[in-house]
């Protein structure tokens, strides 16, 4: 009995679809003209941003606010940045009294500055594009320049993760 109902519904849907498509050739389907799909997609993105903002607020021990939502919305599309990962790191920095000697409080403004610095550091740490192959003395000069870039990269990493006092012990 149910199979008959399902078949009947399918026939009705096919009939409606055929009437709606009218004079279209076989195999061609008319796309809906309403913007309901784009508005629903933007609603999904907005909902995702809200969920991430709630998660970040809980990680930072901050109340949900428009300012925090704006910060999350600003930095969430950046693929080289993990907003939740940076929230964990920022909270750990704030809680560490040795590193946070000024006893700064966690605020949306502090988190925005934290994310901006993280974004700038990822831009400076991204290696440049590989050079085209060269011959002779140019190749020797290029490897020396690459070594200098590598040393600068390692130095920045050490400074970022270990602090400036670690550099003084190494040098």
Could you provide a short overview of the structure?
The chain has 171 residues and is an all-alpha fold.
Write a structural description.
The chain has a domain of 82 residues. It is 70% helix and 0% strand. Helix 2 packs across helix 3, helix 4 crosses helix 5 and helix 6 packs across helix 7. The protein is elongated.
Characteristics of this structure?
171 residues, mainly alpha
Structural class: mainly alpha
Strand content: under 5%
- SS field, number of helical segments: 7
Low-confidence stretches: 1-6, 130-134
How many E strands? 0
Subunit organisation of the chains: single chain
Order of helices and strands: HHHHHHH
Largest sheet: none
Gyration radius (Cα, Å) is: 28 Å
Give the overall shape, derived from the CA principal axes: elongated
C-alpha termini separation = 84 Å
Kindly state the mean pLDDT as a whole number?
75
Helical content stands at 55-70%
Topology summary:
Elements (H helix, E strand, L loop, with lengths): L1 H20 L14 H25 L5 H10 L7 H13 L12 H18 L11 H26 L1 H7 L1
